[in-house]
Write a structure and sequence with these properties.
about 400 residues, Serine Threonine Protein Phosphatase 5, Tetratricopeptide repeat, Immunoglobulin-like, 3 domains, 13 helices
């Protein structure tokens, strides 16, 4: 496309040169121009046989316009010297180039081509490209694409102040997409040392009014609620955000950890229920609400998971092996077998296990703290399990 642009531009410029310089030399008049006297003779021939008054009027007009020499002079040259013509061509070319650089899209084309190859670019090349985009964005402040690209870049690069400048520019220009409103609120919140202004809150709430699952708005309002010690609201926002993540993903795990921290601040973290005996232990129920009591045993003859291992106990809808859990427990056991209770205190994304008649229970033991069967040293599953049963559900783990 770029080569075609230059070819077309050169062809148009060459055509202009031909029209300005070459063709006028072949289109010059080779005979003298007509005079008023020539016009009078022609008019007199036309008035033959007409009244004498018309002929006198024609002669009078010749006198009014002024007489000319008997021998008409040849016409002055219509074109100037070659030097002046080529100077004009050169000046026109420079003006066109300067005008295109000011108003044209050549730099935009170069930036678009660089962005298409950004995956193969070196860090220094990316920094240089961002600098070019910034320059272009300042030259064209109404270009929403550049403002959005720079806002995304600086927000992901942990420079919220710079990101806010561009997201705020988009909002001022009239952007109302929930993604832009949410990120504008998030950038302002982070740039203001985690203080949520009235404007930022309004933008985040406006984003959620359009899209109830807008991630940036949910994250911002959740962080702000936590900073304001409104841990219940923070948990609600983060649970809605966690519902957007795939179970076992880093984002899902991170949100589970901060939700657990908010619950600790509220004093609602479930107590770790462990046995006093390595072989058998009485099960302790810790909540009056309906739930499921789970006892987890390591495989017979298998080594006990090392200290620091994390046990995930997940409750899903009966028959489901994947998808959003209804409730999750994350525990670092000190002794085995491990006893855990899943109830409404551990519910996810507003779901209540007490409202389910039966669920599927899965246990994953992870050494590195990452959920998911692929990361599990041991795992086990029982399906279906009646919610509110009097006896604990015993899950015998098995290795991968």
């Amino acid at each position: 496309m770029i080569d075609d642009f230059w070819i077309a531009g050169a062809a148009l410029l060459l055509g202009a040169i031909v029209w300005v310089v070459v063709l006028p030399r072949y289109w010059q008049r080779q005979y003298p121009t007509e005079t008023n006297e020539d016009w009078l003779r022609l008019r007199q021939r036309e008035l033959v046989g007409e009244s004498e008054q018309l002929q006198q009027e024609a002669a009078l007009r010749l006198i009014e316009d002024g007489l000319v020499d008997d021998v008409p002079r040849s016409a002055d040259p219509l074109i100037s010297s070659k030097a002046s013509q080529w100077a004009g061509v050169l000046l026109l070319t420079v003006l066109v180039v300067l005008l295109y650089q000011r108003l044209g899209g050549w730099e935009d084309v170069n930036i678009a081509r660089a962005l298409s190859d950004v995956e193969r670019a070196q860090p220094a090349d990316i920094i240089a490209l961002i600098s070019r985009i910034e320059t272009r964005a300042e030259a064209r402040p109404a270009n929403a694409d550049y403002a959005l690209l720079l806002g995304e870049y600086y927000l992901s690069g942990n420079d919220p102040a710079a990101a806010f400048d561009y997201f705020d520019r988009l909002v001022v220009m009239g952007a109302s997409a929930p993604e832009i409103l949410g990120k504008a609120a998030q950038a302002e919140f982070l740039a203001n040392d985690r203080q949520l202004s009235v404007t930022a809150r309004a933008r985040a709430e406006q984003a959620l009014a359009v899209n109830t699952a807008e991630p940036a708005a949910l994250a911002t309002l959740g962080m702000a609620a936590f900073e304001e010690a409104d841990f219940r609201a923070a948990i609600q926002y983060w649970q809605r955000l966690q519902a957007l993540e795939s179970p076992g993903s880093p984002g899902y795990t991170m949100l589970a950890q901060i939700i657990e921290r908010a619950r600790l601040e509220l004093g609602e973290a479930p107590p770790r229920l462990v046995d006093d005996s390595p072989e058998e232990a009485p099960f302790v129920a810790s909540s009056a609400s309906l739930g499921v009591d789970v006892m987890v045993r390591v495989p017979e003859g298998a080594p006990v998971p090392p200290n620091g291992s994390v046990v995930f106990v997940l409750a899903r809808a009966a028959g489901a092996e994947q998808g959003m859990p209804i409730a999750v427990s994350r525990t670092q056991p000190e002794r085995w077998p491990l006893s855990v209770r899943l109830d409404d205190r551990l519910s996810m994304a507003g779901q209540l296990i007490s409202e389910s008649k039966a669920v599927s229970i899965e246990v994953q033991v992870s050494i590195d703290g990452q959920p998911g069967r692929d990361n599990a040293l041991y795992w086990g599953r029982v399906d279906p399990v009646t919610v509110g049963g009097a006896e604990p559900v015993v899950i015998a783990l098995r290795g991968q």
